[in-house]
Design goal:
By secondary structure, this protein is mainly alpha-helical. It is built from seven helices and three strands. Helix 6 (87-115) crosses helix 7. The structure holds FE2/S2 (inorganic) cluster.
Length: 154
Amino acid sequence: MDNKLVREDPLTVGSVAKRCGVKVSTLHFYESKGLIKSTRNIGNQRRYNRQVLRRVSLIKAAQKMGITLSEIKEKLDTLNGKTAPNQEDWQRLSMHWKDSLNERIQSMQKLRDYLSGCIGCGCLSMDACPLYNENDKLATIGNGAVLIDNLAVK
Ligand code: FES
């Protein structure tokens, strides 16, 4: 059998899962979120082209950095129809995510410092504790974790 033909054969979901070190269900999930695409064979089984291996590798790397799947999809959608990121794409995406990661690290460090006074305290003082939010008084500032969000922008 010609090796070139074998290398271009589409991959089964099990093969992709094994080679990427993820569960089959993870690939199904990625596909449901539009992060990867498959075709179906005549038996209605998923088949992937080999470029999906790079794509899944990128998704895994980004997830390890704490990048959300929606952020990953947003960036993968900038690949202008390419199914797999090349080296230049990866450099561009990783630089963007590095900045995002640095911002989150700084935010978490500030939060850690912020919380250090609370550890072992338990006062939940409305005046002194940075965590206490009786009757959702912080709702006037914004939605969600406004103290943490405010840390991120400072
Ligand atoms: S619990 Fe006392 S300052 Fe936060």
